[in-house]
From TrEMBL:
Keywords: Signal
Alphabetized Gene3D superfamilies for the sequence: Glucose Permease (Domain IIA), LysM domain
Region (Disordered): 28-72
InterPro entries in the record: Cell_wall_metabolism_enzyme, Dup_hybrid_motif, LysM, LysM_dom_sf, M23ase_b-sheet_dom
UniProt cross-references to PROSITE patterns, sorted A to Z: LYSM, PROKAR_LIPOPROTEIN
GO CC annotation, single: cell division site
CDD domains: LysM (cd00118), M23_peptidase (cd12797)
The name this protein goes by in its record: Peptidoglycan DD-metalloendopeptidase family protein
Domain LysM: 69-113
Family: Belongs to the E.coli NlpD/Haemophilus LppB family.
Signal peptide: 1-21
Domain of life, per lineage: Bacteria
């Protein structure tokens, strides 16, 4: 049977379509894997990975923690405050502890607060009260049971000077008395610019505004026992390491870091605040 030309063309077209459909089905491309940020699982940034702990480095002076004559730095401390609380100048503390930058000390750091070689550093010896025969009896605390220990030498505390006669540092009236918990000195009223005078001969161990709550502050060291502090000044007239005489004008009264014009005056005995009124002549 002969097919017409038209029929043949139609038949061939149908065959061609079938072949194309088969090929299309056999070679359909695989699905595309989404590798964009949307399609892949999130990756944690490098900084979010837990850091490997570094070997802990002991803080300076840690081997002296708890020993007599040493102090462990607390939060908020600086050398000026540590010195004031222990009857020392900050420069001495920096020198004794080889601190190159006095503005950088760390919480937990242990600093020497007594001069090298001072009696208080004697370890293992407790000095008992003087007995009736006038001899103090040291107690060796690090002796091992059953061992013979050579008696430690008697430690005689250095005599404490009590003979300083302090003068009033300002002429105004006392507006707030001493309170060991709330006010560590006397507050003396006056006018801005009134003279602030050295209460006794001494050396300036601090002059500045680096101690919070004191404003412009001068600290004088009079001997190994006593310091005096003069706070809230409007102007300081002395420099550190300068020697002054009793009655010298060292500052002008002001209200720096205070609610009114006044002089806050402290007497520190071996770093501990004591009532200045007990050292000043009655008015």
């Amino acid at each position: 049977m002969k097919l017409s030309n038209r029929t043949c063309k139609v038949w061939l077209s149908l065959v061609g379509l079938a072949v194309l459909a088969a090929c299309s089905t056999a070679h359909r491309p695989a699905p595309v894997e989404d590798r964009s940020a949307q399609g892949k699982a999130p990756t944690a940034p490098m900084s979010a990975a837990p850091a490997q702990p570094e070997a802990s480095k002991p803080l300076p002076g840690a081997e002296n923690a708890g020993k007599p004559g040493y102090y462990t730095v607390q939060r908020g401390d600086n050398l000026t405050r540590i010195g004031l609380d222990h009857g020392q100048g900050w420069r001495d503390l920096a020198r004794w502890n080889n601190i190159a930058n006095p503005d950088v000390i760390e919480v937990g750091q242990v600093v020497r607060v007594t001069p090298p070689g001072s009696a208080v550093e004697s370890t293992g010896v407790v000095v008992r009260p003087v007995a009736q025969n006038g001899q103090s009896t040291p107690q060796q605390t690090n002796a091992q049971p059953g061992t013979s220990v050579k008696p430690a030498p008697v430690v005689t505390p250095a005599p404490v000077s009590e003979d300083i006669a302090f003068a009033w540092p300002a002429s105004g009236s006392v507006i707030a008395g001493f309170d060991e918990a709330k006010n560590k000195g006397l507050d003396i009223g006056g006018k801005a610019g009134d003279a602030v005078l050295a209460a006794a001969d001494g050396q300036v161990v601090y002059a500045g505004a680096g101690l919070r709550g004191y404003g412009n502050l001068v600290i004088l060291k009079h001997n190994s026992t006593y310091l005096t502090a003069y706070a809230h000044n409007q102007k300081l007239l002395v420099k550190e390491d300068q020697k002054v005489r009793k009655g010298d004008k060292i500052a002008e009264m002001g209200n720096s870091d205070a609610d009114r014009v006044k002089l806050h005056f402290e007497v520190r005995r071996q770093g501990k605040p004591v009532d200045p009124a007990k050292f000043l002549a009655a008015r």
